[in-house]
Amino acid sequence: MTRVSSSITINKPIKEVFEYMASPHNGPAFVPNLNENTNIFPEKDGVGQKFDWRFNMAGVDLRGKAEVTEYAPPKKVVISSKGDADSTWTYKLEEANEGTKVLVEIEYELAETALQRIANKAVISKLTQKTVEQMLENLKVILET
Amino acid sequence: MWIFYAALSLFTAYFFVLPLSKKRPVLIKGGGTAAYSIVAAIALYPLLEMWLLVAIITAIVLFLLSLRPWFVYGVTETMIFDALEKAALATRAPIERLAGSYIIDNSLKVRLLNLARRMHIISFKKGGESKKAQLTAMVFKKFIENYFV
Questions:
Q1: Shared domain check, B77 and B18
Q2: Which residues contact A73 (CB under 8 A, 6 or more apart)?
Q3: Partners of A100 in the beta sheet?
Q4: Do A29 and B145 touch (CB under 8 A)?
Q5: Residue A32 — φ and ψ, nearest 5°?
Q6: CATH number of the domain encompassing residue B92
Q7: pTM of the model
């Protein structure tokens, strides 16, 4: 498993940040290469919520199914996914001076077939790190401005 | 000339055949639109006078530099505007509807030009657009590409 992480402080109340991040409907708006989350069920966010995802990495479409495995508002969400990439996405939130500190950790392992399509493991690691950093920047832009 | 025919074939495969084979719409962004248009114009060289070729390429470059348009094939006008409204909702960007265009976050004007029933040019009047407007445009692109043709 490869692990990448990043954090940022967002000048918004923790509850607002949590509610936006935890909803799979909002994923494609702030996760740079996530094209779509579909078949989200049930509608209500929480443990057991499942959805299908489609991610684009270096021009290659990756697909899979995800499930919310931990949901502790407004502090933590864990999403586990299986498919072309097996991964665990952890969002941890804590109150900071004038807002919310958000930490995102992604642990992932690409399926052999997907890896062959993208070709280079080091490139993928850099792309994923960039994705997580850009994701937090996007979140800040969406929620603060 | 063969190199331009080869480039035209590769671009056509990448920009058109690949998405359509997955039943997804074609969406070519500014740089891609410029490259494809210029290669196509040069590949047509045997059919054109030199001055006409130069005029076409100049017109393409000026048009693309000023509006940085996207070429979209495979979706209707309604679907495109739905995708834009959905993108603005997802990024919480204010959106204002004008006659035939939209303004995102008071800073980016989006206009649609219908070339045929499912063929469009989306142009962006840029200059000082906000980060949120730029992000909304990226999400808008994703939402168009998520449709099935």
A1: no
A2: A15, A18, A19, A22
A3: A10, A95
A4: no
A5: -50, -45
A6: 3.30.310
A7: 0.90
How many whole angstroms separate alpha carbon A140 and alpha carbon A69?
A: 25
Residue with tokens 């690691």, as numbered in its chain: A125
Residues of chain B neighbouring A26 (CB-CB closer than 8 A): 90
- Token pair 């004008």 is found at B98
Q: pLDDT for A86-122, tens place per residue? A: 999 999 999 998 899 999 999 988 777 766 666 677 7
Report the residue count for chain B: 149
Question: Pairing relation of β-strands A50-57 and A99-110?
Answer: unpaired
For residue A135, the enclosing domain spans 2-144
* Cα gap A135→A105, rounded to integer Å: 12
The Cα A87–Cα A109 span in angstroms is 6
Quickly list H helices, A67-120: 112-118
Question: Hey, are the CB atoms on A29 and B90 less than 8 Å from each other?
Answer: yes
Report the domain count for chain B: 2
| Residue for token pair 């078949």 | A39
What is the ipTM, given to two decimal places? 0.90
The count of other CB atoms within 10 Å of the CB of residue A38 is 12
Q: Is A11 helix (H, G, I), strand (E, B) or coil?
A: coil
* Residue B139 belongs to domain spanning: 72-145
Same domain, B38 and B90: no
List of chain B residues whose C-beta atoms are within 8 Å of the C-beta of residue A138: 135
